[in-house]
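Inverse folding, one chain.
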């Protein structure tokens, strides 16, 4: 690995704190020009409390990594299996086991994932329709296209990212809320009507 960036909030540390690993002998250009802080890599005053908080969060995450992974893998498998059972034409993206714990990526055919997000938000469930990197562009993920996923199917992408505090009851709430939302949107979809006639 040449470069690795870590955001503290991804493992329950403070937002706004991050770290950059650069392999020995590697180089990078400064993010901000100016002072000599951080060995000339980034000018500005360090946020020491956030840096300490990130370190503590990393220590806790390392101690709990196996317990967290087991919990998230179990919840993710339950979520995925229950939704595939309840929603027809639901695609599973990615490998079933070789994936980040708690990451469930599905595709609802014949509808746009962004529409699903709005309805799910109204019932208090937060999901995504792709990575945060493309969330405001409404573009299909280049990663999904590179995986060979059809452009239309990728538009229906639904990404669930479970965390250490999620419960079986919350997974079951998704089972209850998502299928009627998908069906409602499909009933309005000309692509779905074309498929069913």
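Residues assigned per position:
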């Amino acid at each position: 690995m040449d470069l690795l960036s870590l955001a503290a909030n991804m493992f329950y540390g403070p937002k706004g704190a991050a770290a950059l690993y650069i392999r020995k002998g590697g180089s990078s250009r400064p993010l901000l020009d100016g002072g000599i802080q951080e060995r000339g890599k980034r000018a500005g005053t360090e946020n020491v409390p956030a840096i300490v908080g990130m370190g503590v969060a990393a220590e806790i995450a390392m101690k709990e990594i196996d317990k967290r992974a087991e919990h998230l893998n179990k919840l993710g498998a339950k979520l995925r299996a229950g939704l595939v059972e309840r929603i027809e034409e639901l695609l599973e993206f990615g490998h079933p086991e070789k994936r980040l714990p708690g990451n469930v990526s599905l595709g609802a055919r014949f509808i746009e994932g962004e529409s699903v997000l709005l309805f799910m938000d109204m019932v208090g469930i937060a999901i995504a329709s792709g990575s945060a990197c493309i969330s405001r562009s409404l573009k299909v993920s280049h990663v999904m296209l590179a995986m060979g996923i059809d452009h239309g199917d990728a538009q229906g992408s639904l990404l669930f990212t479970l965390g250490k505090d999620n419960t079986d009851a919350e997974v079951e709430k998704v089972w209850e809320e998502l299928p009627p939302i998908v069906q409602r949107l499909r009933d309005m979809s000309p692509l779905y009507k074309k498929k069913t006639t």
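The longest strand covers residues 103-108. The chain has six helices and five strands.
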